[in-house]
Amino acid sequence: MAAAAAAADKSPEELLCAAASAGNKDDISELISSGADPTYFDASGMTPLMHAATGGHAAATRLLLDAGAPWNALSPSGLSAGDLTSDPPTYDLLLDHALRSELILGTVARRQANSSDGVPAESYLDSRVSFSEDRVMDADSKAVMMEWERPLMEAHARAVCSGGGGKVLNVGFGMGLVDQAIQRYEPEEHTIIEAHPEVYARMLKLGWGEKKNVRILFGRWQDVLPQLGSYDGIFFDTYGEYYEDMREFHDHLPKLLKPDGVYSYFNGLCGDNAFFHVVYCQLVALELASLGYSTQFIPLPVKDCLSEQVWEGVRQKYWQLDTYHLPVCQAESEPE
Ligand SMILES: C[S@@+](CC[C@H](N)C(=O)[O-])C[C@H]1O[C@@H](n2cnc3c(N)ncnc32)[C@H](O)[C@@H]1O
Question: N or C: lower Cβ tally within 10 Å for the chain?
Fold first, then answer.
């Protein structure tokens, strides 16, 4: 047996990586049964699963996933098995596995939450923010909001005002980009929730408190919920919160969104990894579907909005992908 013959000078895990690279199912099964660790990283920082995915070996990928190989391990260049494969069946298998794991365990959610190194989410609202022409920064040099997102915010406004304006709710003012765009649709009522005292003070300074159709609710969305009505369009884009907070907001949608209304959110989830991002898009869509909403993702190219200069002085590049997927969620129509 090939694995046994070579075992003299290689560890079982090194042999597992070699078998995964070659897509050798028999060797993979035998090595795993005899205790080879599928979570191993070889000298180049690759796992057996990454090797199988790179080679486009779907059956080997399946075996490794079943044996507990982590789908979300990252190579030294920040790529996961799903990023490394160009084989559609292998990709689908990894995506399906990732979604199942996330639905059960929510590990990406925890990864996302833990990646907010520096200012913990709970303390963002108590810390200072600074404003300049093209950004709002937190006390930890991370960007709360940036000017490069303006075209995205305009597209979000178009989506949530597509019913003609009506009553629109925006959660999170930031630089007011989406709110400026929403105003252009002359909504009958435009409610803005903002929780940070300095952002709120700036809104007032900029005259948002005097606009006829604007109602500002100062506080966390969680705390001002009882003051909300129902809306034709809702946009959600907070900062320093966890994925679980957005999920909690979604639980309120059936009350907040009118039956024909449109909901959208800033889709920055895992914006630094293409595969994780796809997992997240699908995860949110599944969770919204369980609440009765269908989600379409409109692809918007963002490569041209972003240059290295944009990120100068920013501690974390929160977006690194070429395409933004703008979510448009609506209540699923009743079956005839
Ligand atoms: C990314 S910015 C929003 C950017 C905005 N969409 C724009 O177009 O400029 C997020 C905003 O949400 C606010 N925020 C954070 N947590 C919040 C909460 N729980 N409730 C309401 N606003 C919150 C932040 O202070 C910040 O102003």
Answer: C
pLDDT in tens, 223-240: 999 999 999 999 999 999
Closest CA to 240 of 104, 123, 93: 123
Residue 247 Cα to ligand 1 middle (Å):
16
Question: 58 and 160: one domain?
Answer: no
- Quick check: 168 and 233 in contact, CB under 8 A? yes
Examine the domain organization and report whether 315 and 174 are in the same domain: yes
Distances (CA, A) of 162 to 100, 151, 165, 258, 261: 34, 16, 7, 13, 9
What range defines the domain where residue 319 resides?
A: 147-331
> Is the beta carbon of 221 within 6 A of some atom in ligand 1?
yes
- CA-CA distances (angstroms) from residue 334 to 250, 259, 293, 316? 20, 11, 11, 43
| Residue 216 predicted with pLDDT over 60 | yes
Q: Is 39 part of any domain? A: yes
Instruction: Specify if 124 maps to a domain.
Output: no
Atom of ligand 1 nearest to the CA of 129: 25
If asked whether residues 323 and 186 sit together in one domain, one would say yes
What is the distance, to the nearest Å, from the Cα of residue 48 to the centroid of all Cα atoms in its chain?
Answer: 26
**Res 200: pLDDT:** 98
